[in-house]
Design goal:
With 296 residues, the protein is of the alpha/beta class. The protein has a domain at 2-145 and 177-203: 3-Layer(aba) Sandwich (Rossmann fold), CATH 3.40.50. It is 44% helix and 19% strand. It is built from 12 helices and 12 strands. The radius of gyration is 19 Å and the shape is globular.
Length: 296
């Protein structure tokens, strides 16, 4: 098959591309960075360089493909992130309709069952609905939890302060997802062409609370007494902005997700569905975490 992978060679895209090529599929990788072209070619894929803001480019990147992996890349300059996500989702849906692609695997998120969900989840709801309106396209929505790899950003705090935290308390259960498990789910759906109609699949690798995350990741780097700290929304927002986040990115992707964890809306549908947990555990991720930033 011919497959278009959006989102460049990110945490999911690289692994998915490698898996598809290993099975003999022709893969086109969409990237906004011309500097990634040689890296994409080295994997055996075809680089397509352009912007998801450009509808004609999006449409061209889908043309001739049997399947597309849809990922909306973050736009750090967007003033309204939710509107950016919705607009990009509409571009994707229109391009799928016009190009005759038969299968779309869409990276959504836990919480996307709510039209007015906090953070990016409400916008992801809108994208899911747009894709579900397509009559001739089979669609699988992958709804992962919190990416384990996001904890790499907390490495200095864990190593030097012995704390890690967020704007919710350490007793909150967190659905955690390793990007490789998302790549595996997307690969299976595309390689087997096993999706019929419109489907939702939760991808949760492990479930741990904040206190367990602190102990596990802290122990991995020799800081077994690492504590989970609950920050106020304002404390966390200011810290993120000092670290280089725009206010919009910090508010949508971190502060509001924490609020949704606090009020239970983030995980309510996942808990009702009772879909299985399985994949790379937090303990296994901790072994990767322990070597991050160290010489190979």
């Amino acid at each position: 098959m011919i497959v278009t992978v959006t989102g460049s060679l990110g945490n999911v895209g690289r692994t998915l591309t490698e898996k598809l090529i290993a099975k003999g599929h022709t893969v086109k990788v969409v990237t906004s960075n011309p500097g990634r072209s040689e890296e994409i070619r080295a994997l055996g894929a075809v680089p397509l360089v352009g912007s998801v803001h450009d509808y004609e480019f999006v449409k061209h990147s889908f043309e001739g493909s049997d399947a597309v992996y849809l990922m909306i890349p973050p736009d750090y300059n967007a003033a309204d992130i939710s509107e950016y996500i919705k607009t990009t989702g509409r571009q994707y849906a229109n391009a799928l309709r016009e190009t005759g692609v038969k299968l779309a695997v869409n990276l959504s998120s836990i919480g996307a069952h709510l039209e007015d969900g906090l953070g990016p989840t409400g916008a992801n709801f809108d994208v899911e609905q747009r894709l579900n309106e397509l009559q001739q396209v089979h669609v699988l929505h992958l709804r992962p939890g919190m990416f384990m790899t996001n904890f790499y950003g907390a490495m200095p705090m864990i190593r030097y302060q012995g704390i890690v935290g967020n704007n919710f308390n350490g007793a909150a259960n967190l659905p955690l997802t390793h990007p490789r498990d998302i790549a595996e789910a997307a690969f299976r759906a595309i390689d087997d062409f096993s999706v019929s109609g419109k489907q939702v699949q939760y991808v949760v690798s492990d479930i741990k609370n904040g206190d367990q995350v602190a102990r596990t990741l802290g122990s991995a780097v020799g800081k077994a007494d690492t504590q989970w700290v609950e920050f106020s929304d304002e404390q966390l927002l200011q810290a993120l902005m000092r670290d280089g986040f725009s206010q919009a990115m910090a508010q949508v992707y971190i502060i509001e997700i924490g609020m949704a964890i606090r009020d239970g809306s983030f995980t309510e549908d996942y808990q009702k569905q009772r879909q299985p947990v399985g994949g790379i555990t937090l303990d296994e991720f901790a072994r990767e975490f322990s070597t991050a930033g160290l010489p190979v």
